[in-house]
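re: the backbone from monday

yeah here it is again, tokenized this time
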């Protein structure tokens, strides 16, 4: 299973940070039976091992007036996949970019400030991607479940 390599304390610490990434080292230590310093050392070791990649605020674009959040499924010719991926990676509207199973498929999440900005993104970036075969765009109407990161 994917938890191999984590001992019981590290697993507890990761679970706590998934619930509240702003939890203090003192609070983590109290909950897992360690001192503040020992808890801090454990967290730092998890960061150094790359298990914890970072901490961030999660913004709900639907709560921002006018923001449009969309998922794109793109089929790209295999020879153009690298160039198309790099073009998308450089766009400030793209928040997530994945290569998924299937021939030359990319899964893209983008957030635009307005429908007009989304249309410009499609016209100027997506439509001009090298090797674009097919594009499907789905606008998010409401968030029913949205889990961030790994759930243990």
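seq for it, each position gets an aa:
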């Amino acid at each position: 299973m994917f938890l191999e390599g984590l001992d019981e304390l590290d697993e507890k610490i990761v679970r706590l940070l998934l619930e509240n990434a702003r939890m203090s080292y003192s609070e983590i230590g109290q909950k897992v039976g360690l001192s503040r310093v020992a808890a801090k050392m454990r967290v730092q070791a998890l960061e150094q091992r790359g298990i914890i990649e970072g901490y961030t605020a999660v913004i709900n674009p639907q709560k921002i007036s006018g923001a449009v959040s969309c998922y794109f499924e793109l089929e790209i010719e295999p020879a153009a996949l690298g160039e198309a991926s790099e073009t998308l990676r450089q766009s400030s509207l793209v928040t997530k970019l994945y290569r998924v199973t299937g021939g030359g498929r990319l899964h893209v999440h983008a957030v635009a400030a307005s429908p007009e900005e989304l249309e410009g993104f499609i016209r100027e970036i997506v439509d001009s991607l090298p090797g674009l075969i097919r594009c499907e765009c789905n606008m998010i109407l409401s968030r029913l479940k949205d889990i961030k990161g790994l759930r243990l």
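The mean pLDDT is 89. The beta strands are 68-76, 94-100, 105-112, 132-139.
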